[in-house]
Amino acid sequence: MRTRISRVAGVVLTLVAFSGAGTEKSLAQHPRRTPVVEAVQKTRSAIVTVKVEKGGNWGRREVVGTGVVVDGRGYVVTNRHVVTGAERIIVHTVDGDEYPAKLLTEDALHDLAVLTLDGVRRLPELAFAPSSDLMVGETVIAVGHPFGYTNSVSTGIVSAIGREVTMPSGETLSNLIQTDASINPGNSGGPLLNVNGELVGINVALREGAQGIAFALPAETVQRALAKILSANRLSRVAHGLVCNERVLEDGPVRQQVLVEQVTSQSPADRAGLQRGDVIVRIADRPVGNRFDIERALWTSQAGQSVEVRVLREGVAMRASITLASSIEGQVATNKDGAKPQRPSWAVPAKVQQAKDSQ
C-alpha cells in the first residue's frame, strides 16, 4: 500500500512541475504589459476624484464625479452638471492628496466646468490627442469612479463620431464621440483616452435604457473651449492678437502643429512681425501644441511685458518678441465654499433619449 501511494504522489509532483514550466513559457510568449496597461499607468496621476457637496430641498448630499488635470498649476476640467449648485468642492488625487477647489468658470454650451485647486503642488497634466486624428474602431479607455469605485478602468472602441445629443437641460451637444466603453454614474467628467495615453474626449452622457452607448466631448472641442474660457485676456488681462488653429501632420516627428490663421491689425503680434501661416513652436518657456497652450503660456504675464515667440516660417526657424497689450476683459468669477453634506450619491452622466449624426 505504501508503494502505491508513493507512486501516486510522484505523478502529482510531476504534473505540478510540468504545469509550472508551461506557465513560464506562456508568460514569455504573451507579455501582459499591453498598450492599455501602459496608457493607464502613464495617465493615472492626472485623473482625479471630484467630490461636490450640494444643498437642496432634499437636504445636503455629496456627489462624486471625475476630473482631468489640464494644467499642472492646478486646473481641472470636469462636467458642468457635476458641480452645478456646489457649496463645497474637494479634489482627491490618486496619490491620496486632497485639495479644496473653487469653481473658476462654467461652459453650459459644452457641459464643461473648470476648477482651480488651492495649495496645489505641481501636478502631472494630461496631454490632448491631436485634433481630427480619431479613427472609428480604434481602442479607447475610460477612467473614472462609477458608483464610487474609484479609478475604475473600462475599455471599448470608438463606435462612431459626429453624433449629436440633446441634454436634459435642453442644450444640444454636437460632434460627439460615441463609444461602447462602459460609462456609469461617477464617470462624469472623466477622460476617454487612446492607447497612447492622450485625451481623446471628456465623458459626458449615456443613452438611457441602452448598454454600450455613451458619448464624449472630443478633445478638440475641449481644448478649443478652454482656449476661450481660460484665455490670457480673461485670466491675466493681456492681449496678443493671434487667431490660431491646429493641423495634423501625417508624417514627421511632430503629429500636430499650431498654425496662425489671422493676426489682428495693429495688435502685439502684428507689431512683432508675425504672419498668417507661421507655425508657432514655443511661447515664453512653454512648447505649443494647440490653441490652449498659447493662452496658458501667458497666464502669468502682464501688460507691457515682452514675451519671446518661436515660429517656423516656410520651414525656417525664427524668433519674435511680442510686447503684450492690456485687455479690457475681466477675470472669470469663482464659486464660494460651503458646508459638509449628510449623504452621498454619484454624478450621473446625462441620460439622453435620442442621438443622431450631426454631420
Describe this structure in words.
The chain is of the alpha+beta class and 359 residues long. The protein has helices at 2-29, 35-43, 80-83, 219-229, 232-235, 268-271, 291-296; strands spanning 47-54, 61-71, 75-79, 86-92, 98-107, 112-117, 139-144, 152-166, 172-179, 191-193, 199-207, 214-218, 238-239, 242-248, 256-263, 279-283, 286-287, 306-313, 316-323, 325-326, 343-346, 350-352, 355-357. It starts with a helix and ends with a strand. It is globular, with a radius of gyration of 25 Å. Residues 5-20 and 330-344 have low confidence and may be disordered. The strands form four sheets. Strands 1-2-3-6-5-4 form a six-stranded antiparallel beta barrel. The protein has four domains: 1-30; 39-117, Trypsin-like serine proteases (Thrombin, subunit H, Beta Barrel); 139-222 and 344-357, Thrombin, subunit H, CATH 2.40.10; 238-326, Pdz3 Domain. The longest helix has 28 residues, at 2-29. It is built from seven helices and 23 strands.
